[in-house]
């Protein structure tokens, strides 16, 4: 970023699903510092492995050009089935972070009966590009639920018709619905995401809106720290005090 007298130039990109990968640390740093995920990757290998405190969930970033870069796997636990979520390299970090933030929320899902399509319908994603699913109003991103119960799959694909897919994400059907909903909610969010102006993707440039402005360099430097502090507070906040209801003494009868 170009710096002038304590300020830097920052770009705001919309729609967010075309903004490119961004900073992976937006996902990995809070997982480690706020949610207590441990890292055990080999520093001599170009990959990152983070494991949840209960050892049931693992995030793996593996820069393989032929496979998804981001893989999150959750092991089978008691009566809950295993599940897997994958994201390609150009998936915006903010969208992956929506998934991991929901995954590590100590309060649990707000709605166990979440419908991943609901945020998209509210945002007018009502024009399917294929036979199934919902597509964004610009037709670039499509979310589909394929298959049958027990063998189903949720997919997200961002592509411009004339070119191969820019990025894809897959969620096995056993992935908790509220986690998939966190992704669709982020997809439907029209708030632009911040990027370094020199690193705005060249693909689909004519399909995105980019505005630049100058912001204090300190704001850029502390953005991740503020995010970590906010997510850490979720784990350290005291439980809500139980409401004590006044119960009148039983009536005495003769």
TrEMBL record:
Residues 232-246 have a biased composition (Low complexity). It comes from the Bacteria. Signal peptide: none annotated. InterPro entries: DUF317_SPDY. This is DUF317 domain-containing protein. Residues 51-108, 136-193 form the DUF317 domain. It comes from Streptomyces niveus (Streptomyces spheroides). Residues 231-254 are annotated as: Disordered.
């Amino acid at each position: 970023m170009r710096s002038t007298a304590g300020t830097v130039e920052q770009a705001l990109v919309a729609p967010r699903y075309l903004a490119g990968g961004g900073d992976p640390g937006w996902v990995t740093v809070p997982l480690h510092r706020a949610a207590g995920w441990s890292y055990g990757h080999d520093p001599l290998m170009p990959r990152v492995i983070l494991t949840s405190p209960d050892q049931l969930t693992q995030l793996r970033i593996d820069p393989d050009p032929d496979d998804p870069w981001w893989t999150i796997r959750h092991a089978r636990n008691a009566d809950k089935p295993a599940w897997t979520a994958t994201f390609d390299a150009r998936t915006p970090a903010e969208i992956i972070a929506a998934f991991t933030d929901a995954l590590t929320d100590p309060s649990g899902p707000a709605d166990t009966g979440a419908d991943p399509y609901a945020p998209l319908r509210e945002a007018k994603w009502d024009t399917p590009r294929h036979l199934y699913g919902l597509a964004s109003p610009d037709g670039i991103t499509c979310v589909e639920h394929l298959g049958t119960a027990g063998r189903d799959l949720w997919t997200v694909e961002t592509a411009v018709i004339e070119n191969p897919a820019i990025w894809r994400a897959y969620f096995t059907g056993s992935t908790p619905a509220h986690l998939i909903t966190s992704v669709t909610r982020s997809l439907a969010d029209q708030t632009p995401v911040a990027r370094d102006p020199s690193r705005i993707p060249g693909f689909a440039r004519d399909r995105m809106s980019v505005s630049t402005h100058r912001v204090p360099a300190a704001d850029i430097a502390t953005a991740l720290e503020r995010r970590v502090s906010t997510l850490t507070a979720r784990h350290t906040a005291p439980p809500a005090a139980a409401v004590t209801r006044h119960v009148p003494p039983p009536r005495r009868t003769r």
